[in-house]
Design a protein that fits this description.
Layout: H1 2-20, E1 40-43, E2 46-49, H2 51-63, E3 69-71, E4 79-82, E5 91-93, E6 96-99, E7 104-107, E8 112-115, E9 121-124, E10 129-133, E11 140-144, E12 152-155, E13 162-170, E14 177-181, E15 186-197, E16 199-203, E17 208-213, E18 216-220, E19 225-227, E20 236-237, E21 249-251, E22 255-257, E23 261-263, E24 271-273, E25 277-280, E26 284-287, E27 292-295, E28 300-304, E29 307-311, E30 318-322, E31 332-336, E32 340-349, E33 359-362, E34 366-375, E35 382-384, E36 389-394, E37 397-399, E38 406-408, H3 409-421
């Protein structure tokens, strides 16, 4: 009798459930995720599996803290979220994970991913998006098995909103850089720790680093930061690059076009311009106090048309010298602009390649020139064109100018005019 009553009750409940569309674990015709089996969600009235829901279900089904999930490319759907499954390693990765058009991978605070082979990497393409937002209490950690070096993070494609915040990358030394930006990708990088890499961060092509804030390096064998051009880096604050063996910010190519306002970011390390620097455009280009440039052999630092501000201070001059400490190693600085130019507390060392002046002012430049220090020039130290308007000048120091200290074509032009006015006969 009891069994029959139980059966009757089950039939009634099943009928009511069907009529109300409110029963759990329903295979189709669903409205809520709770109506689907564990590991599935309700999408377009049908129960479907997703990597995110499957991972959550694995945790909810009692696998317990510290259970490890292997991630493959097949797990990456339109929007995949990796959640913290508990203490220790949450996920393992043995291959390169590639995000394609419109896909998004979101990694939540506290997630730890263990790289199991040298093929392991996370890569974006097309307009796909990577968001890794840890916290100071629960950073995201990407590390490798002992004796394994993995490829790192590769941000390619066109998405402007990649975000890495409170992320630790360890042993990402199988590729050129722990974090590589290419194509037109844009990223904000904040509160990163990069340990045991070759180059730490590299940005090429027309990619952009919108922020590089509070990044710390440990045991990096190469450069802390390598950029295709200086313009790629928009903002840098409070970075600690002492842990890199090559202690310069490396800039690979010379030309940049400035049609708005650009201020060179401040670092405790010098910028290394392998191919020199060539700034053009109608914008404003500012080099703040304490900035240091090192320049490649026989290369030049040139400013054309831009409004130039080199704003050194007596206790924090702007310093420019060759990558190697040799007289005449690099070609010096040229300024050719009709816009107002301010150059103050600038120190130029070991210029004079191809007998170029250490500092050359050309065209109808309108220049404020104060407290320039010249040291070790293999040619003329200061060359002033005949149409240059020096609105203010003084306080210069000349040391070791092998040709002469100053060539002022304005004075020579005056002498020629006087001679031309003397009657002959």
């Amino acid at each position: 009798m009891i069994k029959r009553d139980v059966h009757t009750l089950a039939v009634v409940l099943s009928a009511l459930c069907t009529l109300s569309m409110g029963c759990a674990h329903k295979q189709d015709g669903c409205r809520l995720d709770t109506e689907c089996p564990n590991g599935q969600i309700c999408r377009n009235t049908k129960c479907e599996s997703t990597p995110e829901s499957a991972l959550r279900a694995a945790h909810d089904d009692g696998r317990g803290p510290g259970d490890i999930q292997a991630i493959t490319n097949a797990d990456i759907q339109n929007h995949t979220k990796l959640v913290d499954l508990g203490p220790g390693v949450d996920y393992t990765l043995e291959e390169k994970i590639t995000l394609y058009a419109s896909q998004k991978l979101q990694i939540e605070p506290g997630v730890t991913i263990l790289m199991k082979s040298s093929d392991a990497a996370i890569e974006t393409t097309d307009d796909s998006l990577l968001v890794m937002e840890g916290s100071s209490q629960k950073p995201i950690v990407l590390r490798a098995d002992p004796n394994v070096k993995w490829q790192g993070i590769r941000l390619g494609g066109t998405n402007p909103n990649h975000t890495l915040k409170h992320v630790t990358l360890e042993n990402a030394a199988a590729g050129d850089a722990a974090i590589l930006l290419t194509d037109e990708a844009q990223a904000s990088l904040e509160n990163l720790t990069i340990q045991d890499a070759n180059d730490a961060i590299k940005a090429l092509n027309t990619s952009t680093i919108k922020k590089l804030h509070s990044t710390t390096l440990n045991h990096c064998q190469g450069f802390p930061l390598t950029l295709d051009t200086l313009q790629i880096l928009k903002s840098a604050q409070n970075n600690h690059f002492d842990g890199a063996q090559k202690r310069t910010i490396r800039i690979l190519h010379a030309p940049i076009l400035i049609n708005d306002t650009f201020t060179v970011p401040k670092f405790d390390l010098p910028f290394q311009f392998d191919d020199g620097l060539n700034v053009s455009g109608l914008g404003v280009f500012t080099i703040p106090e304490g900035t240091e440039f090192t320049v490649g052999k026989e290369k030049i630092v040139a400013f054309s048309d831009v409004q130039l501000n080199i704003l050194g201070k007596s206790n924090a001059p702007v310093l420019m010298h060759g990558i190697k400490d040799e007289d005449g190693y690099w070609a010096g600085v040229t300024v050719s602009s009709m816009n107002a130019t301010v150059i103050q507390h600038l120190t130029l060392i070991n210029t004079g390649a191809d007998m170029a002046p250490a500092l050359s002012l050309n065209d109808k430049s309108k220049v404020t020139l104060k407290n320039i220090t010249f040291s070790g020039s293999a040619a003329i130290c200061l060359a002033i064109g005949e149409e240059v308007d020096l609105t203010s000048e003084g306080g210069h120091s000349f040391n070791g100018c092998q040709n002469r200290n100053v060539l002022d074509e304005r004075l020579e032009d005056t002498v020629h005019n006087i001679i031309d006015d003397i009657p002959i006969g």
